[in-house]
Amino acid sequence: MKKLSDREIEDIYNFVKSFHEKFLEKSGVILPSLRKSGKFTKSALTLVFLAKDYPKTRIVSKKEITEFIRKYYPDTNDVQDARHLGMQKGWYIASGTRGNGIDDLGYGEYKLVSLEEPHPNFKLHRKEIVGELNWDEIKSKYDFRCASCGSKEGEPNFRYPGTTTKLTQGHMDPNKPLTKDNTIPQCEKCNRPDRNYWIYDRKGRVIKVADPSAVAKSDESVKWKIYKMLYNDYRGKNPNDE
Ligand SMILES: [Zn+2]
């Protein structure tokens, strides 16, 4: 796919924005900003890419999205935004990694289903989405400290003493929306993009894998052990035979 002109991106974004205002905002679906520091954001670019030609959207692979984003951010190698737009921000984006009724989606494939309804899993949680009030409540339960490293809001970060700690809303499970029960305070240093590979407990400790692509970054010996384990678990079943 060729690079869209800035004008085309703005037009598609504004088109999506009009649907958001009309149908989605009331359900708590979060519209990403179009620009940050003058540059298009990855999240907005992903949404625009998925919404192109709406309602005749097509199935796109994570690879295609990544290639599109690379035209604006050449160093990008793993775009998580499509998944986050669906799971965390509430957009009705079907994904091949979880069953949501679109059978022809393969692993790592996405399709924007509707701009008039939030993601079906999101609707269930929207009332619990973290607002100003309960965010302060959550932070105070943690004595205004990062759940992972303990740095205190407004004070120097433990691991980066030159910086002042600012607490951000971290997902315990990045595949679920940011509800009260799924939020821990994390400093900006701990709440980095690569954290989304993992699921955290209430104490900010990693307890599970959230994104199977974390395995691809692992050492060969670990990958082999995982392969053996899964091979035994699934009794050697070929995943392509389904
Ligand atoms: Zn921290």
Structural features, described:
The structure is a single chain. With 242 residues, the chain is α+β, with helices and mostly antiparallel strands. The chain folds into three domains: 6-123, no CATH class; 127-211; 216-242, no CATH class. The chain is built from eight helices and nine strands. Strands 3-5-4 form a three-stranded antiparallel β-sheet. It has a two-stranded antiparallel sheet with strand order 1-2. The longest helix is centred in the first third of the chain and has 19 residues, at 6-24. It is globular, with a radius of gyration of 19 Å. The two termini are 30 Å apart. Zinc ion binds next to strand 7.
Helix-strand layout with pairing:
Blueprint: H1 6-24, E1 35-36, E2 39-40, H2 42-51, E3 60-61, H3 62-70, H4 81-87, E4 92-95, E5 109-114, H5 120-123, H6 132-141, E6 167-171, E7 183-187, E8 198-200, E9 206-209, H7 213-216, H8 220-233
Antiparallel strand pairs: 1-2, 3-5, 4-5, 6-7, 8-9
The protein binds zinc ion (ZN).
Zinc ion (ZN) binds next to β7.
